[in-house]
Amino acid sequence: MGSDEAYNFVFKVVLIGESGVGKSNLLSRFTKNEFNHDSRTTIGVEFSTRTIQLKSLIIKAQIWDTAGLERYRAITSAYYRGAVGALLVYDITKHLTYESVERWLKELYDHADPHIVVMLVGNKTDLGSERSVPTEDAKDFAEKNGLLFLETSALESTNVETAFQNVLGEIHRKVSSKEVTRGSISAVSLSSPVPRAAGDPEEKKPCCRNL
Amino acid sequence: MQHPLQPEGEQETGFDPLHNLNRNLSCGGSLDSSTLSESTFLSYRKEWDDLFLNSNYLTRIRQAGINGRLRSSRFRSVCWKLYLEVLPEDKSQWINKTKELRSQYEKIKETHITNPRKAAGQQDLVVNNPLSLDEGSLWNKFFQDNELRGMIKQDVMRTFPEMRYFQEEDVRTKLTDILFCYARENEQLLYKQGMHELLAPIVFVLHCDHQAFQHASETAHPSEEMMSLLNPMFQEHDAYAMFSQLMETAEPWFSSFQREGKEEMLTSMPFARPQDLGPSVAIVTKVNRIQDQLVKKHDVELHMHVNRLEIAPQIYGIRWVRLLFGREFPLQDLLVVWDALFADSITLDLVDYVFVAMLLYIRDALIASNFQTCLGLLMHYPPIGDIHTLLRKALFLRDPKNNPRPANYQFQQNLDYYKTRGADLVNSTRDNDRNNHTLFAKTAPLNINKVSSSLLSFGRKLITHSQSQHQPLLKSESMPVYLSQGEGWEHIHTLNLTASGSGDEYVARASQQEHRGRSGGWYKGLW
């Protein structure tokens, strides 16, 4: 999980949704395979990374997690800037968190790239008996709005891996199809092995010399 | 008998609330009262007298707070009340003022925490029924209150989860009631996430002092002042008063009120980035001012580095400021930081300098790191060797003439450690931090260096290197891919290829380039 591996792409993915839906635990489940029953309220922004292999490519997922109640333009713009994927999370046991999905979507499209890959994520399927958002409703909504959709449980580690993998795969699909049409692969790929820290001149590779 | 204001290290006061905290994460654990007995109360009394029985006592306790000498005080809450102006300087007013504030809270609580069912008989049933949409309906208020309470409760449940004290139901109820009352008394601001973590340490400090008081008063009769001020019955009342006073200063940092005018920004930021345009929020303005003025003034190289990596201070700084560094240090150290912040001034001016001192403390590691490692360091601040050095550094930065420069100015030892561990820091959470704590504990703590000459040249070498090689080193390794490539990417490369010169000139040119690149490129979302 270190950052000193080589990778072909860095994809920035943001987690959004109401407070308490489990964004931070989805993040920790995916990046560290951990779940914290009493994680603290996220204040401002959190950040974690994980490198995954997608076919022959190494992709570094840079995942940003934000406080559910944060509403500042100057923060949101810094937060969404450069994001190529988003997981819009609600809690399947709390209908209110689902009702605000539309508002989140609007905020996302207001600030992020219009081509951002978005997945609607219904979290906490481990609390199935308390479900208040039917799967079909959310699925329909996702379809109508061109979003990917999955239900997850960060607690039981259900679908978390798949959710992120699907989003990253879709991002890659979008990016690479653009590469083909534009024929500018080298301009997109941030390839070349990455040194442990930028402060080691010896380790540098002239990654973009061919430009 | 120990003088409570003895310098750190010689201090062996009978009751250290946080000593127990370390053992069982709850203060006021069992002390062997038989061995301490009477001498406990004598030392307790003496500590009180030493703190407050002096004509010039306020200045002295301010110094004690600033210099970290309240760490094991059993009257920290009284000191905080004085710093926060909950208590007046005139000691003869203490008891009256305390009574007054407590009855104020009593009324506030009565007003806001009412059950509509109770008052239902007094209202017309047409207006007052559960389905009424009437604004004035008590039921309507009841539903709104429930929503607000739910929001607060959600955060209260997640307050200091590692401490048993905060898992207790009555403590949680107290926290919720205080925050609820505050929100109702401040309808403009209401409740904002993070307030709960400003309140919690206050409640905890009161609790510790109450425990110490009860323990000491088992053996003798405490003074009237002690009995009034440290009465555990009024923990909630006192916490509300202290929290309200603290919020007087901290309020703008929670407010999302957007100021339209950008005059200040324009003067402080000659090369405003797109995200800086538009209405501003006080907290964002504040952290940007810290990064773009104070950091630049004290460490131009560091400022250059974070700007080049496009690390906006609001990404990490909002949490630092809003929680008064509550997540960046363990509680024992945090309370020492708050001692200093409060003692220094109720305006919390020292916050900006603690902020800068924290950045300077890890500056070598930051400068040697790419975007990701930098964010990891800033969002999971590494364990600090000695919190007092950091505070001294902050004081020195603010007023170098009247504060000694912290002694440790040697080249820091574990930069290599950072370079190899930095990557993992990115992935660490609070949980994992514990592991990192032990790892760090084995190595020498970082020294606070402003600019060590060897590193400065090392940094310069880096810049020169990247220029001579025409590599977009930091940029390409650190910035994620953008969906909207095309123009945006060309500009990135243009930026790096044209960057030349050094120091400020480099930054200035880079900023201009970036600005142009962004406005014509990915920021607009061109595909």
UniProtKB/TrEMBL annotation, chain A:
Compartment(s) where it occurs, according to its Swiss-Prot or TrEMBL record: Cell projection, Pseudopodium membrane; Endomembrane system
Compositionally biased region (Basic and acidic residues): 199-211
Region (Disordered): 191-211
Gene Ontology terms, MF aspect: GTP binding; GTPase activity
UniProt membrane topology term: Lipid-anchor
Subunit structure: Interacts (GTP-bound form) with RAB11FIP1, RAB11FIP2, RAB11FIP3 and RAB11FIP4. Interacts (via the hypervariable C-terminal region) with ITGB1 (via the cytoplasmic region); the interaction is GTP-dependent. Interacts with ITGAV. Associates with the integrin alpha-V/beta-1 heterodimer. Interacts with VPS33B.
Protein name: Ras-related protein Rab-25
Automatic annotation (TrEMBL), chain B:
Location within or outside the cell: Cytoplasmic vesicle, Autophagosome; Endosome membrane
One Pfam family recorded for the sequence: RabGAP-TBC
Main location: cytoplasm
Keyword Iron: no
A Gene Ontology BP annotation from the UniProt entry: autophagy
Keywords: Autophagy, Cytoplasmic vesicle, Endosome, GTPase activation, Membrane, Phosphoprotein, Protein transport, Transport
GO MF annotation: an example: GTPase activator activity
One term under GO cellular component: autophagosome
Top-level taxonomic group: Eukaryota
Coiled coil: none
Domain Rab-GAP TBC per the UniProt entry, residue ranges: 70-345
InterPro entries in the record: Rab-GAP-TBC_dom (IPR000195), Rab-GAP_TBC_sf (IPR035969)
Quaternary structure and partners: Interacts with MAP1LC3A, MAP1LC3B, MAP1LC3C, GABARAP, GABARAPL1, GABARAPL2. Interacts with VPS29 and VPS35; indicative for an association with retromer CSC subcomplex. MAP1LC3A and VPS29 compete for binding to TBC1D5. Interacts with AP2M1; indicative for an association with the AP2 complex. Interacts with ULK1 and ATG13 (phosphorylated); indicative for an association with the activated ULK1-ATG13-FIP200 complex. Interacts with ATG9A; the interactions seems to be restricted to the AP2-clathrin-associated fraction of ATG9A.
Protein name (record): TBC1 domain family member 5
Organism: Salmo trutta
